[in-house]
Design a protein that fits this description.
Blueprint lengths: L9 E4 L2 E5 L1 E2 L4 E2 L1 H13 L3 H6 L4 E5 L11 H6 L3 H21 L4 E5 L2 E3 L1 H7 L3 E5 L3 E3 L13 H9 L1 H9 L4 E2 H7 L4 E3 L4 H13 L3 H12 L6 H17 L1 H12 L8
Helix pairs in contact: 1-4, 5-6, 6-7, 10-11
GO molecular function, one term: catalytic activity
Protein name: Enoyl-CoA hydratase/isomerase
Family: Belongs to the enoyl-CoA hydratase/isomerase family.
């Protein structure tokens, strides 16, 4: 289905599922698009179900201009019951964001221009972030007297550390592409003119990899801060055993023995 901007909200391109949650050059969150994306991501199901559908990665895309400028602040100001209205928007955003974080396959975003407020939350929730030389992110919530949503106060300390997160959030700090790379928020730096192509290529590379193994890596990383070492070692042992017993492991071991590149998807 296409959103207000005319481009599809969800579209499968080869083994990559492209999703858009914003509208317009400003990149404000689009409520109907978020609902559609949440449904599509939940529909991916387990690793096995995603593999059956031929999906190996999700790419969070936008229509040009800024990656995401956050919520529609004008609609917040115009609401009769601002607290209730903002809660409704936050709940919708959180439904989509949780589905995005929990989806079985890797996620990729090419962050063009500004990612502010909810846009920064989306960046922090993404597995592999590609930025351009002019990319900027900013919490932005304090500027309108708000506290964060979209998991920002949960993800940011886990990426940059609690002390640095306090400074970034409390001072509403603007972070450049170089800052994002040095802090571990971004993974790849591209020239602005090559940003979209680099993000697309990154998603395609991941999608052609061993879907089950990459999904298990996501799952292990997600539990890093929730488990003690013994529990995590047991999870790793179970995961690597399942990989070795599955078709991807068989292909990887066969390819290694035959001294060729593995062909995980035909």
């Amino acid at each position: 289905m296409s959103g207000a901007s005319g481009s599809p909200v969800v579209a499968q391109d080869g083994r990559v599922l492209r999703c858009r949650v914003t509208a317009g050059k400003a990149g404000a969150l689009d409520g109907p698009a978020m609902a559609e994306v949440a449904e599509a991501l939940r529909g991916l199901g387990t690793l096995e179900e995603a593999a059956e559908r031929g999906i190996g990665a999700v790419r969070l895309a936008h229509d040009g201009g800024n990656f995401c400028a956050g919520g529609d602040v004008r609609s917040f100001a115009a609401a009769e019951d601002r607290g209730a209205f903002v809660r409704e928007v936050a709940d919708l955003f959180h439904e989509m964001l949780e589905a995005y974080v929990r989806c079985a396959v890797p996620t990729v975003a090419g962050v063009q221009g500004w990612a502010a407020g909810a846009g920064m939350s989306l960046v922090l929730a993404t597995d592999v972030v590609v930025v351009g030389t002019s990319t900027r992110i900013r919490p932005a919530y304090p500027a309108i007297g708000f506290s964060p949503d979209g998991g920002m106060s949960w993800t940011l300390p886990r990426i940059v550390g609690l002390g640095r997160a306090r400074h970034i959030l409390l001072s509403d700090q603007v972070l450049t592409a170089e800052d994002m790379l040095s802090l571990g928020i971004a993974s790849v730096l591209a020239d602005d003119t090559e940003l979209a192509a680099e993000a697309e290529a990154t998603a395609y590379r991941l999608a052609q990899g061993p879907t089950a193994a990459l999904g298990r890596i996501k799952r292990l990383l997600a539990g890093t801060f929730d488990h003690d070492l013994r529990t995590h070692l047991d999870a790793e042992a179970a995961s690597i055993s399942a990989s070795a017993a599955g078709p991807e492991g068989a292909e990887g071991l066969t390819a290694f023995g035959e001294k060729r590149a593995p062909r995980f998807h035909g």
